[in-house]
Design a protein that fits this description.
Number of helices: 11
Largest sheet: 8 strands, parallel, barrel
Strand order of the largest sheet: 1-4-5-6-7-10-11-12
CATH topology: TIM Barrel
Oligomer: single chain
CATH architecture: Alpha-Beta Barrel
Length: 250
């Protein structure tokens, strides 16, 4: 079994880390560079930085922040938000990012995934999917959960993989920030359907939730925000707990 990854996620708005519930009601969580540096030192495997209003506001992602993060941390990090074309990817990689996360732009123009994979390699392209369960069907959303599409989660994830995505980052919007556990049933379907890693996002509130994402949801990695930002779960303690539960972590 490949080692499972623990990934703190830093949602950035106006230069600060924020955390919301169900994609709204944001509160300040601190400086994104300092937080990232602390997580790197605590044993996080990777980081994800998301410019959460870039697509909605129609602007490019924060290159200066990416450069500052790259100068301070020693683990891989992914950047997402407002990435629409290859030039955006090139600029972010040159600024120090290891991977990019595409969501809204890929839903609007799926060829973007092929272009990123073809030019930079599949390992660079993370396809993020924000989805919500609507009448027994997982519907994908654009623009930070603001706009519903006619795309269905499992079909879109399969297409993203076929186009060259290296990983799927699945966030259940209903679980986001409410700390009741990940959407393990949907995660399990994704993990069993796809041949690429699946990152669980949305719902972490306890160390047991991470365990369940790995054992029940069969996720390859678990991403969380508020439980790390506000000190509710410490990464070294989480990894110790997961090892005791028989889960291979780095």
């Amino acid at each position: 079994m490949l080692a499972k990854r623990i990934i703190p996620c830093l949602d950035v708005k106006d230069g600060m880390t924020v955390k919301g519930v169900n994609f709204i009601n944001f509160r300040n969580a601190g400086d994104p560079v300092e937080l990232g540096k602390a997580y790197s030192e605590q044993g996080a495997d990777e980081l994800v930085y998301l410019d959460i209003t870039a697509s909605h506001e129609g602007r490019k992602t924060f290159l200066d922040l990416v450069r500052r993060v790259a100068a301070e941390i020693s683990i891989p990090f992914t950047v997402g938000g407002g990435i629409n074309e290859l030039a955006d990817v090139d600029a972010l990689l040159n600024a120090g990012a290891d991977k990019v996360s595409v969501n809204s732009a890929a839903l609007r123009r799926p060829e973007l995934i092929e272009e990123i994979a073809g030019n930079f390699g599949s390992q660079v392209c993370v396809c993020a999917i924000d989805a919500d369960l609507v009448e027994d069907k997982w519907i994908c959303y654009l623009n930070g959960g603001r706009v519903a599409t006619n795309r269905e989660l499992f079909a879109w994830a399969t297409e993203a993989e076929s186009r060259g995505a290296g990983e799927i980052l699945f966030t259940s919007m209903a679980h986001d920030g409410v700390k009741t556990g990940y959407a393990n049933d949907a995660l399990k379907v994704l993990s069993e359907t796809l041949g690429i890693p699946v990152i669980a996002s949305g719902g972490a509130g306890s160390m047991e939730h991470f365990r369940d994402a790995f054992l029940l949801g069969k996720a390859d990695a678990a991403l969380a925000a508020s439980v790390f930002h506000f000190g509710e779960i410490k990464i070294p303690m989480l990894k110790k707990y997961l090892k005791e539960e028989g889960i291979v972590v780095r």
